[in-house]
Amino acid sequence: MKRVVEVTINGERHELALEPYRSLLDVLRNEVGLTGTKKGCDVGDCGACTVLLDGKPVNSCLVLGVEVAGCDIVTIEGLQPDPERLHPLQESFMKHGGAQCGFCTPGFVMMAKALLDENPNPTEEEIRFGIAGNICRCTGYTRIVTAIQEAAKELSEGRSPA
Amino acid sequence: MNVVGTSVKRTDIIGKVTGTAQYAGDVKLAGMLHGKIKRSTVAHANIKRIDISRAVAFPGVKAVLTHENVPRVLHYGSPHPRSASVTCDQYILDRKVRYWGEGVAAVAAVSEEIAEEVLDLIDVEYEPLPGVFTVEAAQASGAPVIHETGYANNLLFKPVVVTRGDVAKGFAQADLIIEGEYETGRPTPAYMEPNVCVCQWDNTGKLTVWVSTQTAFMVRGILAEVLGLPLHKVRVLVDHMGGGFGAKQDLFQHEFLCALLAKETRHPVRMEYTRGETFVGGRSRHPCKIWLRQGFRKDGTVVAREARMTYNSGAYGSHGPGVTIVGTSALTSLYRCENVHLEGRCVYTNTPIAGAYRGYGVVQTYYALDIQMDEAAARLGMDPVELKLRNAVREGDLAPSGHPIVGHGLEDCIRRGAQEAGWEQLRRRPHEPDGTFRRGWGMGCEMHGSSAYPGIKEQGNAIVKMNEDGTAVLLTGAAGLGTGAHTALAQIVAEELGLRFDDVAVVHGDTDIVPWDIGAFASHTTFMVGRAAQMAASEVKRQLLQRVGEQIEVAPEDLEVRDSVIAVRGVAAKRMTVREAMGPKPGIPAANLVGNGTYTPTKSYSFAAHFVEVQVDTGTGQIDVLQVVPVHEVGKVVHPVAAAGQIEGGIQQGIGHTLTEDYIVDLTNGRSLNAGFVDYKMPLSMDMPPIRTIILETAPDPGGPYGAKGIGEDPIIAIGPAIANAIYDAVGVRFRHFPITPEQVLAALKDKTNADA
Predict the structure, then answer these.
(1) For residue B200, what pLDDT band results from cuts at 50, 70 and 90?
(2) Cross-chain Cβ contact A134/B676 below 8 Å
(3) What pTM was estimated for this model as a whole?
(4) Cβ separation of A75 and B691 shorter than 8 Å?
């Protein structure tokens, strides 16, 4: 039996009729049409499906759609401050080679967003710890770490608003 | 140079950081059904009976396929039909299963959940056959035959034999002879995007396939051949893809099944592998056993080299022949040697399929070679750097392909790496023999060809079109598997045409539109397609300057283009933008300028030396890589950030297969034991050391665009032996296999203590 769930996604209110067994990841991708969030494993191992749930990062494959009633969700599609402008993390990932195949990128960017929200000036060690649940197979993480460091600088110096 | 050599904004990344980039799995079509594959629960068996009646009757199920109702066409599961690289040994679904997890049936249903659920309602009765899970068991006399199409003793093809000079004569001149056995594990590429495709037929009988592949034209060709369609009735679309690392050259089973399910149901069908299926039904590296024997003079010169390799192909041939040929021939080189005798074999076993994976056979053989060079240095009392420099392949030497080497790239890499690492001081430093944590340094080298030529008769193709506003479009068949290839190609076109980078767009990923390409593999794209793009751009520029020359009455050779402005050389006042030159004028229509470039290659090689520091915890056996200094020589670098990214990612995968990654098969029944990211342990952010990447441009190749060579394969090769050699430096224990696990380190340290005592 489907259940009706009200949820805010990227600032927009949605009323969704959901099968109780369907993951938030599948709901976002298949029922809301937000395919930027990726399915790399579907069992919480890879972090490609990371989204913000009431400001905290979650593997959306491990959350049921019906669990997020009344919650506020931000996906990669909701990160840009306005359509003409990228978030500093997005700019930084582009500039510093933080993305290659790009499949893990939305998850990394969202995880980095959560990290910087909580700790605006992380050390390299704190960044590496913060993204330890996200797997990238292309970059060796070097440039992802740099991208997050540079975005943190950009944000904390107030050059770009988050 | 203006554009080539700068890290311009990659054209593919904005979609990736905003979530708008479309991958095959993001395609959603009206009326789309979902497909799933039922997989075998035995490793080797004939299918006696398969009953689909319960599945067909299940609500929401639209079609069920088995070997009884799909075309029975023997096909090449890999992309180079009729080349020596691959075997023709697969059916879409067969009456026989050859590995645990092989697809035996497929279902299309209205939801993924129903498709998944109903797999249990397909009843398969197996007549079990004895399974062979190691190359020894498969080659034993009386071993079960896995493929009737193969050679005796489960060989895929006739052994590869490579001979240069006279090894017996060489060994007779040797002051020191070393031999050893080496063994490599079964890492998998583990790209982040699971295999996925969507298939749709239209009313004219044309099949459209959205698929995550490195080789769209090969997918088109094989689908057309197996389904009995002409090429213009199969269209393959790939926009973005989430990595491939070689393995996504193959056709897996789902492309055929998805197309047939879509045909049967008259609905589009989507089929996506789970992560587990991506392991089980995917492709791994070939596990390999290597016997290697070399003779050295006192001064370190290698005078003879003899080796026998046996690669484990798993249940199907895939790239087995190509991997065996490339890996075997690689031992003719890297360290020069006049007397060489090499034999490579590739054997079927009832294990998951090995295929193409970054480093293509060479990861295995250079692991053995570079460890044995380190052993020789120790025995000869030489510095390994000195020994490797003495023997390093150089200008004019014959490469594995038989082509002469251009330049002194390997020597340059070794020297620069030694300098950066401070090797001389490191060699002189005292080792602390008693501490719990012991550190050591090691180095490894590699070379790898750009493009699969001459093994495969390749060509690079490109079309460049000018628009009437002075912008240009490049049409390329090269896949964008994440390397930044399309950006590099656009840079080359902009450079050649004298346009601003932003004035060039790239069209790719549609086999109906773009020129044919063999696929993105073998470090091919920048070298081959880049050169073709340069040729196409050069042709358009010739047409453009001719048009301008006629308009302003100047000889075309006196014109130059830079930043999208055409000027007469030496006459500052005479200028015209490319936009003005292209557009219509009274009495002159807009120009239609198209350039076509086709490049058939020479062979070129890239080189690297990796210097690595490790720390061994003698209490737990844990090995940590503390830092890596990779030095790569790749000719002209087109995009420095993307090139460095390739190197660092390759090192990550190489650290993985050397220390922690091994896809394990139960040798009693062929079952996969760790088909998931928790049990198949790849390096994560906390595991990765600092990497000080250095790229040299000292040996540009005249065959590549502006001297550029390939880079994709190279960085995964030298890191492995560098780590093994560093472990030896740290604790004095020689490992001749990978992965090197903590348990093995502890056991070896205990043995060493006992032996020393």
Answers:
(1) very high
(2) no
(3) 0.97
(4) no
